[in-house]
Amino acid sequence: MERRLRRSRYNRIVAGVCGGLGNYMGLDPVVVRLAVVLLMLFAGMSLWVYIIMWLLIPEE
Fold this sequence. Notes:
mainly alpha
């Protein structure tokens, strides 16, 4: 079975990016959302990174 990174249609709040990343990595999407928010606030991850992922990762 081939794993593919896809944005989630069902586990989404904004665009399904964190839900798709959670499914791909086998993690709870809430953990991924929390990590993304913490990275944006404290590690300098830009909102542009999220927007680029939204545009590049296809929807399932």
